[in-house]
Write a structure and sequence with these properties.
The structure is a homodimer. Chain A has about 425 residues and is an alpha+beta fold. Chain A is built from nine helices and 21 strands. Chain A is elongated. Chain A binds a DNA duplex (18 and 18 nucleotides) through loops.
DNA sequence: ACAGTTTCCCGTAAATGC
DNA sequence: TGCATTTACGGGAAACTG
């Protein structure tokens, strides 16, 4: 059951990193009368400085002029394809950096302008357009913040260039935001978020409520303020998971084997009455970019017991892919290794049926050595009981894992005379 | 027993990477009569192009002029400290790149010139000096080749600037080279190579001989030709081990717990009559940058059996430090996990005594999760005998691990009027 | 002192040149 | 085509800077 998840217009990076090449293509959408000379287009960064002083100024380090040419593929439009453009910061020596410390760099919006001039029957005509707002960063560590800005802007305004948007950013309704979040996952992984997953995220932001539809999130709560008791914001947490999926969990995520966003309470309610050894996969809420599994066992008196492993993060996962961790995971009690406690992926899929095709054999046969592999293992002492948090209250409903509703949201592209892409 | 290993003159990097900053300091060794104006020094890359055409041309991208000043610390010498210098390749459009494909980039030697001019009593005086030969690389993957060139040059010539050195590089005697190799290890790790280790390296180059003292190695055999049957040269192999030590084995190497350079034959001779579970650590000869352990067991009929694990390379070691691998290594036979087969580091040091202080506890207690660790494990099927190569012939002598002789070799520094350093 | 931001540069991958 | 070399840039860490 593959989820319908095809963007109508894939979201282009609207984030540019200084010192890293980018390219942009401009198409003239109106047909010009015959112009017998070559039409030159020029691109400028932040040509018209926005009203409020900006924090930083950049310039295009590389050649920013190019002759337009006729593109075969789009019925002879005039186009120009700028390549190998590169941004560098203009160091302002004396000028006081404005902006009064209100905005962070990823809230600062910039724009790329395109200009051309030609004469027709003695009349000089200027053509000009410019891009949607751009975020400029200097290190990939700023990408999550940049994405948050791009999302918020796209979600909450149709204005083509409101450079002061983050001066007083509007709130988003949970309806809007949850759709956008699902869309982010869809775009970057191939699978979005289902109703239950979104519900858990809503609870994270607003607490338990019958419906989050009427809730509103401020920009600050979304991205700038830390989650209560955690050293990171909601978006930083969510984005760390997106990255983890992209790099280490893609096929398993796309096969829908990661429930992921599920509260510990719901997790217990789901596993409570299942076969011993039934487990599910859940993203860590306490640490950035972590995934854990929780399985259910039964005491001698028939009481359900839930055990979660310390979350695996990118470092661990690059040593050993997650499917292999699930395959080979062992618990050692008093020095004895019983079999893998993980038997059935919730609700009742035999482990190997779910993950079998993602196992890496990784047994290299290098004569005359004996092969060696890393086995993920937890060590317990039966004298010490497993520390397990007290039974939490029940939650409203069970997961309906099959019912997933996702609608891609449209990204507005501003073009008057020109049409442009930025890659 | 700490090995004496103090370089009298630490070897400075004489390798410059394009696009990466370097700095150089020049000291005027003669006292000038009073000069009442500021003395400006200029540095130029490859000022006088060598006779034979060079493959590549570079220039100093950054400011290459600086005023000299009096250095307090060295009794008022005039010095200049160039910083943030950066090299860029000059792209030669039309000119045929000379050099006829004879030399690789790391065999191409360059030089940094320093010039100053002043007038005294109406006489104009030019001061000029230049650096020892430099190797220019564009990627760190070329560093091993660069180091080989620097070593060979330093080892075999006292000429201050023989730019054509690698046009017909002289051979090195094993006496010279082995000393240089030990010195490389000493400089970069803190521990050099003992007699037995060097002997093994000599055998690798020359085959088994009573003495290698009279053997000669060509530059090509050292660094350019692949070892018979292997896809890498002698130096590339040795350097990969040097890197492995630097990044993953430093404390264990410096504690002298890694025999490392030992043939499989010698290994067996050493372990043959030792307690079962005695093991030693050896670098892989078949793969770049790998380390393995071999331990001895005894058959029911008392015959010694040697088992080696598939070598660990940097990827594995960054998932799990080598000391922890040794600590936790397990062999699973028919699904049963017996205890760690590694008991005594050759000759008879209890494992934990040798490696105990390098163990990482790595048991993180994160409530409410149960901790998990990676356990290195080999899986065997008792129905299949361990594949073990046939008993090799005995080797001349046992290791004398205590007798280590290392003498640092001196690096010549050319200075006539000036003295310079390159960092 | 410190947090936000940029710079630096290794190391891998991809592109380029020969 | 294959090999040698350079370029590109993510990612961690150090340096910078108000």
């Amino acid at each position: 059951e593959k989820q319908p998840c095809m963007p109508t217009h894939p979201q282009k990076p609207l984030i540019i990193k200084t010192g890293v090449q980018f390219s942009t293509k401009v198409r003239l959408l109106v047909k010009l009368p015959e112009v017998d000379y070559q039409l030159k287009m020029k691109t400028t960064f932040d040509k018209d400085l926005p009203a409020g002083r900006v924090n930083r100024q950049f310039f295009i380090l590389t050649n920013n002029m190019k002759v337009m040419d006729f593109e075969e593929s789009s019925n002879g439009c005039l186009t120009v394809d700028f390549r190998h453009l590169q941004l560098k910061e203009k160091k302002v020596i004396n000028g006081t950096k404005g902006n009064e410390g209100l905005l962070s760099v990823t809230e600062e919006l910039h724009t790329l302008s395109f200009e051309a001039n030609f004469s027709i029957q003695g009349i000089s005509i200027d053509l000009e357009t410019c891009s949607l707002p751009l975020v400029v960063i200097s290190n990939v560590s700023q990408l999550p913040g940049g994405w948050a800005s791009v999302m918020w802007y796209n979600l909450l305004t149709n204005e083509p260039r409101n450079m002061g948007f983050f001066g007083s950013p509007p709130r988003a309704s949970w309806n809007q935001l949850s759709e956008a979040l699902g869309w982010q996952f869809c775009t970057f992984t191939g699978r979005g978020l289902n109703k239950e997953q979104l519900n858990m995220l809503g609870e994270k932001l607003f607490g338990q409520q019958v419906s989050h539809s009427d809730c509103q999130v401020s920009w600050s709560k979304f991205c700038k303020e830390n989650i209560l008791g955690k050293p990171f914001s909601f978006w930083m947490w969510l984005d760390s998971i997106l990255e983890l999926i992209k790099k280490h969990l893609l096929p398993i995520w796309n096969d829908n084997y990661i429930m992921g966003f599920v509260s510990k309470e719901t997790e217990r309610a789901l596993l409570k009455d299942k076969e011993p050894g039934t487990f599910l996969l859940r993203f860590s809420e306490s640490h950035l970019g972590g995934i854990t599994f929780t399985w259910v066992e039964h005491n001698d008196n028939g009481e359900a017991k839930f055990i979660s492993v310390e979350p695996y993060t990118k470092n661990r996962l690059s040593a050993l892919p997650f499917a292999d961790i699930i395959r080979n995971y062992k618990v050692m009690v008093d020095g004895v290794v019983p079999e893998n406690p993980l038997k059935f992926l919730y609700p009742d899929i035999p482990k190997d049926e779910a993950f079998g095709r993602h196992y890496n054999s990784q047994q290299s046969k290098v004569f005359p050595y004996i092969p060696s592999m890393l086995v993920p293992m937890s060590t317990l002492d039966s004298a010490l009981p497993i520390c397990s948090s007290p039974e939490p209250p029940m939650t409203p409903g069970m997961f309906d894992m099959l019912n997933q509703q996702l609608r891609p949201f449209e990204i507005e592209t501003a073009h008057i005379v020109f049409d442009y892409d930025i890659n």
